Amino acid sequence: MGSQTVSQIPIIDLTNETLKPGTEPWISTCQVMRSALEDNGCFYAMSIKVSMELSNSVFGLMDELFRLPLETKKQKTSDKPFHGYYEPHPKVPLYESIGIDDPSNKEAVQKYTNIMWATGNDHFCETINLYAMLLVEMDQTAKRILFDAYGLNKKRCESFLESTNYMLRSFKYKIPKMTESNLGLHAHTDTSYFTILHQNNITGLQIKLKNGEWIDADPSPNLFLFLAADALMVWSNDRIKACVHKVIIREEKERCSMGLFSLSSKMVETEEKFVDEEHPIRYKAFDHYDYLRYKITSKAEWPIKEFCGIDY
Ligand SMILES: O=C(O)CCC(=O)C(=O)O
Ligand SMILES: [Fe+2]
């Protein structure tokens, strides 16, 4: 397990039948995941549960969604930052994105669907809900492995999972005109704990390794890229660094990708286990949604450190 890698990033099969707590595959996966996160803040996951057919349907439906009139897409507003619709902006003219809050909850997806399609779209609602449930399951399995990798007990992990909110986003990038820059999205880290990115065979996503090297993420649709984000860095007291990533459009095809973001419905705080004399606490606890509101306007290079860093 974990012996396969794509350019230094290991692949973990999160749906392997033998992956049960206490077993040898589980224990070796704990080690692989922990090292991958401490080294470069990311790993790939595989899931046989998300079939090629489901994956193709999701990307097809997202294409249908993005083709709706701008006025229709704009109807999806949210009081939570990064949760609504973002039309192309002069700073990121190629990028457009749509968020669906609480996507593993059927009623929430139904509500969203009814805003986009006045006459309904059961296929959209059912497919996106099923897809989101499978991604949430992957996220939860990964967190159970991660907690165990640091010797944190099951109860602690289950209460952490209970206070997790999810948001599904879809990103679409136009092909740049000859005169336009091919920068799809600036280098950044995400605000979540993990972001799970799923691409559809079109390159563009790049990740920065710990040694400063930028590498292309593998866009195969059978891979799910788990990125450690700001909240996981706070939780681990910097043991795990958030993965810096960006998007550069190089193919003559419209790029679409999907992302599942996990956020805390309570406070984001550092796990006691990671604090001792040698590792004094580096962050103050904070409300996750306050941080999202801060980040949306922040120009800081490391917003998380400015927002809640101690002695930063
Ligand atoms: O397009 C992608 O694959 C990644 C998008 C992204 O990093 C973001 O919106 O935070
Ligand atoms: Fe991102």
UniProtKB/TrEMBL annotation:
It comes from the Eukaryota. The keyword Oxidoreductase applies. Residues 163-265 form the Fe2OG dioxygenase domain. Gene3D superfamilies: B-lactam Antibiotic, Isopenicillin N Synthase, Chain. GO terms for molecular function: dioxygenase activity; metal ion binding. The keyword Oxidoreductase applies. Probable 2-oxoglutarate-dependent dioxygenase that may be involved in glucosinolates biosynthesis. May play a role in the production of aliphatic glucosinolates. Belongs to the iron/ascorbate-dependent oxidoreductase family. This is Fe2OG dioxygenase domain-containing protein.
